[in-house]
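Shape matters. Shown next:

___
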Amino acid sequence: MGFRWAMAGHSVMIGSRVAERALEAARQMNERLPAGTRPVSGADNPTAVGDAEVVVLSVPYEAQAATLEGIREALAGKLLITVVAPLKTPKGRYWRPAGDSAALEAQAQLGEAVRVVAAFQSISAEHLQDPTHEIDSDVMVCGEKKDDRDVAVALAAAAGMRGIHAGGLGNTPVVEGLAAVMIAINVRYKIKNAGLRITGIPADAADAG
């Protein structure tokens, strides 16, 4: 998503436990971005989080708790959008963690100082770095506050997708599980970009919470 957000004019910084890895990832992304686009930057996780208005967590579920612990102080007062989905490898099967979902566990770990929203779990990464490709999928957005969900909905739109308000964090076990469903569909039909569409929502009401 960072590629498309940079294309849309957002300031994007990639974070990593090791600053050099983030800088290399940013360099590779900048090579693919059109001339004139604001360059993507990279830094270690605490620095990237400290400089951000909105933080997007996209790590394997097994790394979530340790990653959040390392940036807990920098996250205070910020909005965290988590893309994490608990999957059993190598077949990509969903399993429900002890805290019911990755997003609920993140909120419990971080407490009220951080607002957690879950989104983008069922979006294929296959075409995200091709700005000419239309992502034929809606984005389910779960969070306790409409204003916070609105941010994720707006970011979905900036990346060329439609964000759908899908309730509070209590719904995240279902939403995170959709990642495994999409993987199973991709495998069965030998494709790489299965997506979901929510029907019946009038165009002028898609962003209503």
